[in-house]
Specification:
The chain is built from seven helices and no strands. It is mainly α.
């Protein structure tokens, strides 16, 4: 599974860069002030294309790991990953081609038009939250499946399941406590995201046929 591990780590690295370049807002019902941030972002298009590539490698590699293991549980994980990746690519295509031109048009328009346009952007934020729920649920199933086949240690599998549920809980918290949405997402997503990096490193350090233990 070395190719999957390399793809997983490469995608994770690209995703860190893409997220760092993205404007910081996460509330789907947030202020129309985000329109000015979007309209003035010179890297918007390139950043979202980079994020699409990152998601393709990161989520696609997780799906490939599940395909290679091929158990009932990992097949559930693969289904969740494929659904989440498909949704993410549709979201990013919309954000790359439509959201910024719409934001530039809306700036300076009436308050009603600005609100409507910001809600269109909020739709992609909320859809992204739904996509990440699918990814984290897929990670729960993947960790369970890899632990059951002894591909990883039971302790590592337990960490993976718990951390993925933290990711799901953080998404729910971000929607409830909207003023602190960025903080909720940053903390809760970092934990399971870090576990995927741990998995990638473990796959690189050990052969595909050997049980993966905690490094």
């Amino acid at each position: 599974m070395h190719r999957e591990a390399i793809g997983l780590l490469a995608g994770a690295g690209l995703l860190v860069v893409a997220v760092a370049l993205h404007p910081l807002f996460a509330d789907p019902w947030g202020s129309t002030a985000v329109l000015a941030l979007i309209a003035g972002d010179r890297l918007w298009g390139a950043d979202h294309l980079l994020m699409a590539a990152a998601m393709f490698f990161w989520i696609g590699s997780l799906a490939n790991i599940g395909i290679r293991e091929d158990t009932a549980t990992t097949r559930i994980a693969v289904s969740a990953f494929v659904a989440g990746l498909t949704l993410w690519l549709l979201i990013l295509a919309l954000e790359t081609t439509w959201i910024q031109p719409a934001a530039r048009w809306a700036v300076g328009q009436s308050a009603e038009l600005q609100t409507l346009t910001s809600r269109m952007g909020g739709f992609t934020l909320l859809a992204g939250d739904f996509a990440m729920v699918l990814i984290w649920l897929g990670l729960v199933a993947l960790a369970q499946g890899l632990g059951a086949t002894k591909r990883i240690s039971l302790r590592m599998a337990r960490f993976g399941r718990v951390e993925a549920w933290i990711g799901v809980g953080g998404l729910m918290g971000a929607l409830i406590f909207r003023q602190q949405a960025v903080l909720w997402l940053a903390i809760s997503a970092f934990v399971p995201f870090l576990w995927t990096g741990w998995l990638g490193i473990a796959l690189l350090r050990q052969g595909a046929s050997s049980p993966l233990q905690k490094p």
